Amino acid sequence: ETAVFQTPNYHVTQVGNEVSFNCKQTLGHDTMYWYKQDSKKLLKIMFSYNNKQLIVNETVPRRFSPQSSDKAHLNLRIKSVEPEDSAVYLCASSSRWGGVYEQYFGPGTRLTVL
Amino acid sequence: GEKVEQHESTLSVREGDSAVINCTYTDTASSYFPWYKQEAGKSLHFVIDIRSNVDRKQSQRLIVLLDKKAKRFSLHITATQPEDSAIYFCAASMGTGGYKVVFGSGTRLLVSP
Fold first, then answer.
1. Residue A55 pLDDT
2. Which of A16, B35, B54, B113 has the largest count of CB atoms under 10 Å?
3. A48–B49 C-beta distance less than 8 A
4. Chain B residues with CB-CB distance to A55 below 8 A
5. Beta strands A53-57 and A64-70: pairing type?
6. Candidates A40, A56, A96; nearest CB to B100
7. For residue A44, is pLDDT > 60?
8. Is B34 in Cβ contact with A101 (below 8 Å)?
9. SS3 assignment for A46-109
10. Sorting pLDDT into bands at 50, 70 and 90, what band is B97?
11. CA angle, A16 then A18 then A21, to 5°
């Protein structure tokens, strides 16, 4: 049963365009994450938010900017996409309460930059 | 920062055999070690985890071992079934909140009938 929702599923765009991806979780979790998974399946954390506060901001290009309106939503905007941004972007959520940190992942947004 | 190395990039076993996937980490402060499974065309889902206060944990056919001295942990899948075929990712994070989880590069497990 899906509890972490991502839109869109796929997005094809051209170099230099701006794109936005949305993520929503209905699990009541307080922490959300963005990961990038490349074509070799390597998974790298980009950002994590706890209760709308940015906690982890890995070394990602400045054209990437996360936005969180509340603890259930975390969006990702990419200004002026580049070919190396082609990847699957995975959103995840988890909860600190009860010491259970397992993450629940969304289905991903596959970005192709032409 | 933390680095997690996953030693087997691919692993092929016959149905019914055991499969072992090994990972090492670098940061002694890491205290939480989850494993995730990614089936073909799907996203990741959690399978099992272990914390640094124990050295063994079992959930049905999955066993995780942790050797803190060697900074090594492993996933053992016993009595493998074809539906175990997937990419398995190990990961490590520091316990507090687990905000930054560092993943290994993944092991593609193929279980043949």
1. 79
2. B35
3. no
4. 97, 99-100
5. unpaired
6. A56
7. yes
8. yes
9. EEEEECCEEEEECCCCCCEEEEEEECCEEEEEECCCCHHHCEEEEEEEECCHHHCCCCEECCCE
10. low
11. 140
